[in-house]
């Protein structure tokens, strides 16, 4: 895959999900679908001069930055912020196998409480994690359809002793869970004697071809590296995926400095300063991944094609991505921000998508209509903006307000 191919593969699945209230879903397309002529043949927008705020309809959306967010203020809020920051230090399945870019289940999980582990494993695993005082974690999941699946994550515990105990107990809990009438058995992970793992065969619903699955838990300092890998037909590829994930994940999580548990209330909520300049998602209803700022590495976990996104972010010099009601990508300069916005617009121009009116009075903006909702992108100064909404006017107003907030202050 060359660079041009990889950056044009990314957003069809993501936008379908955004319009449904989550970031990732497979229903609207795949990374390899071709663009429809109607949307794709639009001329690529060029960077525009800054537009005066009085020319734009911002509706009821805010146009001025919020006051500095400061610190979490309490431990639960600190845990949410800490797990958001952990995304920057998590290996994506595509790092193990570049074919694994397709969504799997919810694709990303911010584990802000042990019970959240029930989304990706037996409830008994969540109970074992809770008993050892699990603090939080981040999990990333993808698949290569009809070939392999990898769920990779890191969970934090109070100290190395708790993590070591939790790894063994979580693995034991997983191994006691019968899968399609089969009890998992212990297995070894090549090159990782410290990994506690089990395996079981299963046949996905609607198919007759068997798969092999591996669940693995490896203590590393105060963390547990957690993987669930599945491969078609035989066990060895699944075990090899786990081994490579551990090889990559261990050194990466070593770079993360966890906040002391008694200081979680002091976790900074907006260390880059971009989040206060991003229209916030509604508190209490937004997913835990929202109202957060990520490094490019962390942000790619939320992209439909993380391989292409990583290339695009590198080319554009993206340094931070803020995710709120709108998403804002800070690039190295105005032309680079325009590159990001243009690439996003092209990548969602797939079958079933048609061109919609651009944001009024905002040259360079682009909007698209999906079966359920609208998607718009624009750039202003060194920032790229993307939004989604059920109604086109609402999408226009979100972009306009976000544009004003970024360029008028």
How would you describe this structure to a colleague?
The structure is a single chain. With 409 residues, the protein is an alpha+beta fold. The chain has two domains: 203 residues, no CATH class; 187 residues, PknH-like extracellular domain (Protein Transport Mog1p, Chain A), CATH 3.40.1000.70. Helices cover 30% and strands 22% of the residues. The chain has a seven-stranded antiparallel sheet with strand order 1-2-3-7-6-5-4. A seven-stranded antiparallel sheet has the order 8-9-10-14-13-12-11, sandwiched between helices. Strand 12 and strand 13 form a beta hairpin. Helix 6 packs antiparallel against helix 7 and helix 10 runs antiparallel to helix 11. The N terminus is likely disordered.
Keywords:
409 residues, 14 strands, 7-stranded antiparallel β-sheet
Helix content: 25-40%
Give the SSE string: HHHHHEHEEHEEEEHEHHEEHEEEEH
Based on CA inertia axes, which overall geometry fits? globular
Kindly report the average pLDDT value: 88
The total of helices stands at: 12
Distance between the termini: 41 Å
Characterize the biggest β-sheet: 7 strands, antiparallel
Structural class, by secondary structure, is: alpha+beta
Tell how many strands the DSSP assignment holds: 14
């Amino acid at each position: 895959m060359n660079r041009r191919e990889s950056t044009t593969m990314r957003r069809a699945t993501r936008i379908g999900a955004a319009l449904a209230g989550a970031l990732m879903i497979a229903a609207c397309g795949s990374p390899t679908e071709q663009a429809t002529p109607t949307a794709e043949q639009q001329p690529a927008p060029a960077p525009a001069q800054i537009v005066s705020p009085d020319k734009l309809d911002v509706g009821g959306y805010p146009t001025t930055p919020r006051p500095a967010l400061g610190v979490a203020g309490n431990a639960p809020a600190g845990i949410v912020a800490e797990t958001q920051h952990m995304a920057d230090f998590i290996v994506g399945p595509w790092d193990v196998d570049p074919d694994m870019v397709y969504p799997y289940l919810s694709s990303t999980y911010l584990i802000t409480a042990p019970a959240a582990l029930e989304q990706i494993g037996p409830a008994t695993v969540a109970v074992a994690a809770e008993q050892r005082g699990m603090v939080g974690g981040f999990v990333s999941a993808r698949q290569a359809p009809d070939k392999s699946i990898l769920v990779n994550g890191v969970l934090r515990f109070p100290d190395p002793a708790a993590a070591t105990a939790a790894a063994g107990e979580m693995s034991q809990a997983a191994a006691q869970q019968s899968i399609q009438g089969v009890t998992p058995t212990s297995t070894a992970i090549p090159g990782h004697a410290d990994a506690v793992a089990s395996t079981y065969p299963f046949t996905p619903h609607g198919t007759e071809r068997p798969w092999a699955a591996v669940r693995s838990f490896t203590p590393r300092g105060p963390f547990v590296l957690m993987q669930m890998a599945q491969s078609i037909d035989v066990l060895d590829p699944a075990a090899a995926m786990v081994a490579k994930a551990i090889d990559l994940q261990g050194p990466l999580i070593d770079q993360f400095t966890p906040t002391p548990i008694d200081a979680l209330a002091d976790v900074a909520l907006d260390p880059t300063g971009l989040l206060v300049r991003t229209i916030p998602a509604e508190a209490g209803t937004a997913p835990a991944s929202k109202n957060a700022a990520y490094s490019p590495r962390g942000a790619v976990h939320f992209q439909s094609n993380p391989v292409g996104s990583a290339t695009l972010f590198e080319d554009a010099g993206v340094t931070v991505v803020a995710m709120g009601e709108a998403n804002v990508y800070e690039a190295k300069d105005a032309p680079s921000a325009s590159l990001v916005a243009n690439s996003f617009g092209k990548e969602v121009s797939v079958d079933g998508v048609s061109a919609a009116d651009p944001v009024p009075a905002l040259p360079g903006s682009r909007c698209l209509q999906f079966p359920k909702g609208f998607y718009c992108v624009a750039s202003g100064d060194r920032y790229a903006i993307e939004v989604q909404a059920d109604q086109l006017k609402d999408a226009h107003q979100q972009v306009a307000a976000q544009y004003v907030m970024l360029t008028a202050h």
